[in-house]
Amino acid sequence: MNTLLTSPRRLVLALVAAGALGATGAGLITSHEARAQHSTAPVAAAVVPGAAVALPDFSSITQRYGPAVVNITVSGMRNAGDDEADNSPAARQRGPQGMDPNDPFYEFFRRFGVPMPERGAPGQRGAPVRGAGSGFIIDADGIVLTNAHVVKGASDVTVKLTDRREFRAKVLGMDPKTDVAVLKIDAKGLPTVKLGNSHDLKVGDWVLAIGSPFGFENTVTAGVVSAKGRTLPDDSFVPFIQTDAAVNPGNSGGPLFNAAGEVVGINSQIYSRSGGFQGLSFAIPIEVATRVEQQIVATGHVEHARLGVAVQEVNQAFADSFKLPRPEGALVASVDAGGPADKAGLKAGDVILKINGQSIVASGDLPAFVGQQLPGEKVQLEVWRQGRSETLSATLANAKDKATKVARSDEPVGKGQLGLSVRPLQPDEARTAGVDKGQGLMIEDARGPAAKAGVQSGDVLLAINGTPVKDVEQVRAAMARADKSVALLIERDGNKIFVPVRLG
């Protein structure tokens, strides 16, 4: 599935990694962290005198399952040195302070915005780097789960237990799309965590995180579930659990426990303006992680499914335009030619309400569901088309390297007439826009509500409320049927997206 992302985030998405040691001294280097899930079964609780509710017994959970949480250190080599003297295209594409984008620690410095560690002298190559993260043991024979970003690019991975034993770990496999990695250490009879069910988590439930923030091993922090099913810009395959448990660099890959002492997620990411914890932590649901682990153990790799659509959020203006009872679902902005959705009969302007009976409330629910299926699986889609519900069947394809993002159009709109001046497309304009001859209209001028909604001169108008338009009369007819708002399907720079325009 493909998707268009049009609204830049102001907050920095920090992939929580760990402390690192460069060739010239200590510096903050990291990997990603956090994922979670939960069960409602009660655990031993400490009752506070005079309080009306029982609190989780975090100390008992820590004593029982803390030994199964491990500290992970990684090492590798980084190309260092002569970036200032190198004016090649590769050097010009490098990141902060000339850091190679392929460097395993590039994402941390780029996203956290912290200074780079000292680089070697010009011409020096192979500067050593070290990083750290967390993980947890799910099998007594040495299977460990962590984040993919913790071990990405590492040549050596060491797992340290709470009893201070250390083991060289083998990376059985990793899945960057979900940020899950599976390690194996040569040991028997190890302590393990108990896996729970994140579907049972409720907003407001207590959760507990254990990890090694900034290298402080087996640090325990607690909080509550802030939200479920969060879709983040670069991770639409994962319906994240949001918590306010303190997560910092080094917590990456550590477990998130529910009040029953069951692991419900893997701590993975934070939102932050500073690079440190600011109350917004995100965990991968444990069901996502275990599906990945099972595939890696069985086959050594992971496959994800693809539907082949670009989707965007349904807001109230879109709901009014498409006569939906509620602003829910995933609005199809474009369909990949020849893809599963195209073969199933999906069209731009359809709103996907359910998949296999599961309601799609936010647009991110769709790629999160599809990404966890396997290629070749069949799904039933309930779609809203031209004011009524229809059911379609699709056979999912392989996602391969195609990630699914959510297209967004959040610009405010005003009142008044539509405010567009349009004309038929010239043949070369139609080819550039990728539309069939005789389809679409070139927008020469945008005023009033259309301009306030973000429509620009040079955009190509393809449809109004899901109905294709190819001449001015069709635009007038569509506007005559319009109520409080219309949804304009616009092509701009090769991307298609619906823009809601409120008329009054």
Q: What does the model show?
A:
The protein is of the alpha+beta class and 504 residues long. The chain folds into 3 domains: 10-299, Thrombin, subunit H (Beta Barrel); 305-407, Roll (Pdz3 Domain), CATH 2.30.42; 420-502, Pdz3 Domain (Roll). 15% of the residues lie in helices and 37% in strands. It has 11 helices and 35 strands. Strand 2 (20-22) and strand 3 (25-27) form a beta hairpin. The longest helix is centred in the middle third of the chain and has 14 residues, at 286-299. The chain is elongated, with a radius of gyration of 25 Å. The model is unreliable at 1-14, 17-43, 79-124 and 408-416 (pLDDT under 50).
What topology does this entry show?
Elements: E1 12-15, E2 20-22, E3 25-27, E4 33-36, E5 45-47, E6 54-56, H1 58-65, E7 69-78, H2 89-92, H3 106-112, E8 127-139, E9 143-146, H4 148-151, E10 156-160, E11 166-168, E12 170-175, E13 180-184, E14 194-195, E15 206-211, E16 219-230, E17 240-243, E18 255-258, E19 262-272, E20 281-285, H5 286-299, E21 305-306, E22 309-313, H6 316-321, E23 330-335, H7 340-344, E24 351-355, E25 358-359, H8 365-370, E26 378-385, E27 388-395, E28 397-398, E29 406-407, E30 420-424, H9 427-433, E31 441-446, H10 448-452, E32 460-464, E33 467-468, H11 472-481, E34 485-492, E35 495-502
Parallel strand pairs: 14-19, 22-29
Antiparallel strand pairs: 1-19, 2-3, 4-19, 5-6, 7-8, 7-10, 8-9, 9-13, 10-11, 12-13, 15-16, 15-18, 16-17, 17-20, 18-19, 19-20, 21-28, 22-23, 23-24, 24-25, 24-26, 26-27, 30-31, 31-32, 32-33, 32-34, 34-35
